[in-house]
# Entry
Amino acid sequence: MHFAVCIKQVPDTAEVKIDPETNTLVRAGVESMANPYDITALEAALGLKEKYGARVTALSMGPPQADSVLRQALSMGADDAVLLCDRAFAGADTLATSYTLSKAIETLGTVEPVDLVLCGKQAIDGDTAQTGPGIAARLGLTQFTYVLDVEWLDPGKRRLQARRKVEGGMEVISGPLPALLSVELEMATPRRASLPMLIASLRAEIKVWDAKAIGARADLVGIKGSPTWVKAIASPQLHRAGPKWDAAESVSAAVSAALGELFSDRDFEAGFAKGWKAEG
Ligand SMILES: Cc1cc2nc3c(=O)[nH]c(=O)nc-3n(C[C@H](O)[C@H](O)[C@H](O)COP(=O)(O)OP(=O)(O)OC[C@H]3O[C@@H](n4cnc5c(N)ncnc54)[C@H](O)[C@@H]3O)c2cc1C
# Structure
């Protein structure tokens, strides 16, 4: 079997700044890292590889320095890594990103068909969670989103069964391969790379593919292929942390103190009395 894992390089969110002129992220001087959901997806792929046998290819679309997330993937145990890097890919929205990644997965498949694509549920910068489903739709893959666990994978029958998160609980679904999983952080705990793997990953070859290498149409990649434009963007205002009451010794004393604080606010009291009358 052959698994492809999509890994996005993202800015370290604690340091994200937005350019008020252009409404884009200020990336200069900002530390980058692999999207945490994608490292979980990689760990899940490596776990499945160990159980069922497979080749794991890590894929990333990004600038040349995004090769660091691929080296991380190799150090953890990925067999191969491909960086999709071309000036034409810049400024991609989720439509163009999913198109580019799906063309790369198609290209991988010309050598060895891809049975399973694993993505993070979402990237922690763009946060849309659209790219995985976009790839699945373009390639006609069975789509398993919000995945918590793969209960079994049957390479002979070419099916898998997964547990996925739904509101208020979880759901068990099964479906045919080839499939795409978009994974939750709870799915796996990423391993630490061993020192020899770490050293080997620094010397490993990373394939670099441009638009031509994946047979992508120039009008469907990057900014040209992106109908989305961000009109405005802002960081949420940080609010002062509210008061806390320690309920370890007495819950009722803590609740009384909290209510006392709430009712010391005249607006709250007036609103409460009004609501109480309306209910009555
Ligand atoms: C602050 C911000 C806001 C944005 N808002 C929008 C928006 O509203 N609409 C829009 O279309 N685009 C938006 N974008 C652009 C968006 O970053 C790109 O489309 C991006 O490449 C994919 O979208 P995402 O980051 O939301 O990823 P998601 O769809 O959340 O990512 C899901 C998964 O897809 C895979 N993946 C995503 N990108 C890559 C990649 N480059 N390489 C490898 N795997 C990848 C990863 O496995 C990831 O976990 C925004 C970007 C930023 C930084």
Summary: The domain at 2-225 is CATH 3.40.50.620 (Rossmann fold). The chain has seven helices and 13 strands. Helices lie at 36-52, 67-76, 94-111, 131-139, 195-203, 251-263, 266-279.
